[in-house]
Amino acid sequence: MLSMTSEVPNQSTARNPPATTEDVVRAVAEREGVAATDLTPLYDVVDPEALDAMVTHTETTVRISFDYEGYTVIVEDETVTIEEN
User: What residue spans carry the region label Disordered (predicted)?
Assistant: First the structure.
């Protein structure tokens, strides 16, 4: 199962265009207070291209969640949410 997070660490944020893997990495880095380059590469956890494609190229509601850097990341349509594990 996959999951993602937003630029607002404790909340969900609607976005247009839909959230991307870059948003996930940026949100977790902000939450951790580190540079995005200090995090484990997202591709070690999930296929970034597949994740972006599932979010941006569908007309149905998509909910993806996964664990990344000690957080559960949830992506649902234009919303990215991160929750502490």
Answer: 1-22
